[in-house]
Amino acid sequence: MSAVGFAPGLTPGREVFRQFRHVYVANHVGTTVMCIDVATNTVTATIAGFSGPVGVYSDGRGHVYVANYGGTTVMCIDVATNTVTATIAGFSGPHGVCSDGRGHVYVANYGGTVMCIDVATNTVTATIAGFSGPVGYGGDAGSEI
Prior knowledge:
Mean pLDDT: 80
CATH topology: Methylamine Dehydrogenase, Chain H
Order of helices and strands: EEEEEEEEEEEE
Distance between the termini: 46 Å
CATH class: Mainly Beta
Radius of gyration: 15 Å
Largest sheet: 4 strands, antiparallel
Helix content: under 10%
Number of strands: 12
Structural class: mainly beta
């Protein structure tokens, strides 16, 4: 067992996200994202192709978004197939990932910005400047504006 008690060789990053019956873990050192079945506490999928994944979040629509820090991208995983379906470029050290629950994913970009992704098109629709190395955040669960 590893230090976190899941499976040998698992070195999780900062973020763990539970999607339905599974937990997705950014395996930063192993350059993968691991899918764990919560009923059996076993790794059911190892999703490759990352370079220093750190942040994991769901759009609530069957996709998990991963901040791929080393690759300066955000990658989208389809949870039904556990495959990468999109690679979104243009980031500079993406870390934290958060959803507004209304079709947008926000990514804390260590380069000093927060970037907004439209999950319908997997494109960056806004860049919010003025930060000094943001690494993560969460919503306030308040009512819509």
